């Protein structure tokens, strides 16, 4: 399906899932990529990290999940193809991810592409095998929670992806519960383990940016690229950019270690 033939992804009348043009989705995607790049540079190279860059980085994952959720339901018959492609990208990316963040995460921590691959696989199994596929997909995700937790948000990240996929699927009966789950999981993405010990800092630098900044970007993208705006980014850009920037980070880390 040609994305340019979809001037409006969702009908305006749906209050919970406002219309997003292909151009608006690309604005969201580019913003998320820049936020992620700033966050990773802040984490890897800046000591101590800059709080403002950390705050900006909190919106990257929610925005990427939003774009994924809008796109994943377009062609249900291609869900397995999407899942297979994401598994391949996730596996290819894992060595460079481990190299770039070897000083920050354990070697077994999985990159965020595994979140998208796992949830897409669940949707594909549900589509092709019904309840049995759903059970198999849930078991797969349950096994992934622990290795996703150190670097890729663990259970809150999985629940956010699942709930947004439901919200954008057109399943009216499940939409309101999915919105509630999405808001709860969004609030729990960052800093939930520190909120009791450092409530003010956690709310200011982690929880509030995670919850509020994606909505600001969403509103700005809709205004910049209203209905009918065509996409301007190539298809499949996110996976290539995600892997590519990790390769650069890993090479720079290795160069600095050798020079030091």
What are the main properties of this structure?
260 residues, 9 helices, mainly alpha, globular, disordered N terminus
Structure description:
With 260 residues, the chain is an all-alpha fold. It has one domain (3-259). Helices cover 72% and strands 0% of the residues. The chain is built from nine helices and no strands. The longest helix is centred in the middle third of the chain and has 40 residues, at 113-152. The radius of gyration is 18 Å and the shape is globular. The termini are far apart. The relative contact order is 0.17. Residues 1-16 have low confidence and may be disordered.
The portion of residues assigned to helices is over 70%
SSE string: HHHHHHHHH
Number of separate structural domains? 1
Q: Enumerate how many helices there are, as a single number.
A: 9
Beta-strand percent range:
under 5%
The number of strands is 0
Query: Which descriptor suits the 3D outline?
Result: globular
What structural class is derived from the secondary structure elements? mainly alpha
- List the uncertain runs: 1-16
Largest pleated sheet: none
Average pLDDT taken over every residue: 89
> Separation of termini?
51 Å
Radius of gyration: 18 Å
């Amino acid at each position: 399906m040609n994305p340019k033939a979809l001037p409006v992804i969702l009908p305006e009348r749906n209050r919970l899932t406002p219309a997003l043009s292909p151009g608006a989705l690309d604005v969201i995607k580019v913003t998320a990529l820049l936020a992620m790049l700033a966050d990773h540079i802040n984490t890897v190279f800046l000591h101590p990290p800059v709080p403002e860059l950390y705050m900006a980085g909190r919106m990257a994952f929610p925005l990427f999940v939003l774009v994924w959720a809008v796109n994943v339901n377009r062609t249900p018959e291609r869900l397995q193809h999407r899942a297979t492609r994401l598994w391949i990208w996730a596996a290819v990316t894992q060595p460079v991810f481990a190299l770039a963040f070897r000083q920050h995460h354990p070697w077994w921590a999985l990159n965020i592409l595994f979140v998208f691959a796992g949830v897409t696989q669940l949707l594909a199994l549900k589509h092709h095998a019904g309840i049995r596929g759903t059970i198999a997909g849930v078991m797969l995700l349950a096994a992934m929670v622990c290795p996703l937790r150190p670097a890729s948000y663990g259970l809150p990240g999985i629940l956010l992806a699942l709930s947004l996929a439901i919200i954008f699927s057109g399943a009216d009966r499940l939409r309101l519960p999915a919105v509630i789950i999405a808001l709860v999981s969004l609030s729990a993405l960052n800093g939930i383990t520190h909120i009791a010990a450092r409530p003010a800092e956690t709310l200011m630098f982690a929880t509030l940016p995670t919850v509020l900044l994606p909505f600001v970007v969403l509103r700005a993208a809709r205004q910049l690229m209203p209905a009918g705006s065509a996409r301007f980014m190539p298809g499949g850009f996110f996976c290539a950019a995600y892997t590519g920037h990790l390769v650069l980070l890993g090479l720079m880390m290795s160069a600095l270690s050798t020079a030091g």
